[in-house]
Every structure is written in structure tokens, then in C-alpha cells.
Amino acid sequence: MEGSELEPKSLAPPGQHPRHPCPEDQDLIYGYAIPTVPYSSRPPSPPSITIPTPTIAENGGPIKVVPSYANVDPADLSPEQLDIITGGLREQTARDSTGSWNYSERRQAQAILDCLYLGPSNVARDREWLTANGITMLLAVRDSRFASARLMFADAIAQELGIQADYIDIENQMGMIRSLPDAVRKINNHFLDVYHRQAVPAASGGQATEGSMFINRQDFKRGKVLVFCETGNDRSPIVVVAYMMAVLGMNMVRACQFIHYRRFCINLSEEMKFLLQTYEGLLDARRTVNQHRAAAPAIDSSTQRRLRRTADEMDKDDEQDNDTPRPGQAPFAEQDDVDMDGNKDMEMAA
């Protein structure tokens, strides 16, 4: 049936494979169809996350952050616990170290907060440095595939110095999101344990809480944690950024800037930035929900019924919106149709 109308038409010119675009004109698809909207032939990818340099906007001034219970998830910490962990809501400051940074400092550890250090694994082997800086906990961030063979020295050193050692095992980048809350919890629990071991009840009898305990400020020593990985520049900074976001309420960009001021050599890949951005969204959502629950009064049954009816009505509205027809637009159109529409538009405009 040559020439029959039932024969399917090929969009490709003679001699051209129908799956390959016409090389004579890249804007035309097979010479017969053109795109109706801009498009790209590469696979889709999210935009890069830029961490701006603070010195441009702040004229070289320091980055300051003051802990506040308004920025903390009430399900994680109480006001008394936050006061203990932050040393009385003490202000934390970071100054630009770009001009004074030496390449050899990458092998050293830097104090990101007054109680939280970040560095490579060789620092965790330096017994003199650990003792001189009052480190009370070694927190190793390691690849779970090599958990049995690498960074196991921390246990021996911690036992020798009478301090604590713990580990955060990371399977992959997505698994790290599940590990970040556990890392933050381990650091906070260690600070609280160090405080409780040195605190005495203000009143005799019963088990004392944080608010009823007395500390001898002259002899008190706060807990200090060293977070480290092999280089101190990739996995361990992620844990420190997550800790500052969860405890100090800093956003991801500000926390990265703060740590970059303290340890200039950190290297956060785009995947890690997206991971932290995802973690920030989870933190904000969880914090908002728990703060609302803590502040909201008890709801009686009649109010619950009204809220339930309102939710049902909203669901019906959503169903109606889903059933409403929407005008569509094909991604490609035949060139003749586009020319006809264009000529019609020009005639109407004239």
C-alpha cells in the first residue's frame, strides 16, 4: 500500500536515522519539529550551593553567635541542659584566619567552639596535646567499611588517658543524615555527664536535677570533645556543622563560614553541602513542630472535631483541584503548526 494514508510517516529525512537529530540544523528536530520551550540535552542536576565569603559583606569582622533556647528543639534539650552545654549561654566568636593561615596547620586541630575541636587523626594520637587542651572525649568519624581496621587506636589512647572514646560510622552520604542526630546526641550527653560527675546536689536528699545542683567554679572543668577523621577536612567537619546547627541554631551557610574561619582547610563537596541542606530542613521542621506542641494548650474534644472537619474539607478541595482539567503544552510541535500559529498571531496583531 505505497502512498496509503495508513502508512506511518517518518519524521526523519531520507537516509537519516529517526532517533538522531538532523545535523544540518540543531534547532530543528528531524527537520520537522521544533521545541516549544527551552530545554537542555544534559541530565538534570541541582544548582550548586555557594558559601559566600563573609569578609565581603562584613568588612572582615568576626562571626558571633549567642546560644538561645528559642533556636533549640525542646524535645532534645531543656533550658538547663543548654545552659550547661554552652557554659552559661556563652557567646562564640570566629575571626578570619585567611591571612594568618599556614599550610602546616592542617595537621593540627582547631577549637571551633570553646569546647569542641576539629582536626585530623594524627592529633588524636598526640597524648601531650590531648592532655594540655583538656580533651575529655575522642569522637572518630569513620567509614563503616573500615571500622574494624582503622582509627581503633582511639580506644587505647582514651583508656590510657582516662577519657572517653566513641565512633560515628558512615556507610554512605545518604546514611550520614541518619548518623548526624546520633553524633549530636553523643556530644551533648558527654558534656552533661562531665557536668554531673563534678556537680553536687544543692539540697540533701533525693536525686538532684540540673537546676538543683551546685558546681564549684574554681575546680570545675568543662568537657571538651575532639571530632576527627583521617584528614579533618571532609567527614568530621560535617558533624561539627550539624552540631552547630542543632545546638546553636545556625543555618548551614553561617555554620560553614564559622568553621571555615577557624579551620581554613576544610573541604565540603557539593554532595555534602546538599546533605547538610537536607539536614537543615529536617531540623527546622522538627524544631517548629515540637516548639508548637510545647507552647500549644490542651485541645478539648469539640475543638478536635472542628479541626477534623476543617481537614476533611481541605482534602475535598484538594481532590477537586486534582480533577480540574489543566491546559497542557506539548514539548515539541510540528514546524508547519508553529508557522501557522505565528502567522495567525501576526494577522490578529495587524
Automatic annotation (TrEMBL):
Residue segments, region Disordered: 1-26, 293-350
A Pfam family per the record: DSPc
UniProt GO molecular function: catalytic activity, acting on a protein; F-box domain binding
GO CC terms: cytoplasm; nucleoplasm
Domain Tyrosine specific protein phosphatases: 212-274
Gene Ontology biological process terms from the UniProt entry: negative regulation of SCF-dependent proteasomal ubiquitin-dependent catabolic process; regulation of ERK1 and ERK2 cascade
Compositional bias (Basic and acidic residues): 341-350
Family classification: Belongs to the protein-tyrosine phosphatase family. Non-receptor class subfamily.
Official protein name in the record: Tyrosine specific protein phosphatases domain-containing protein
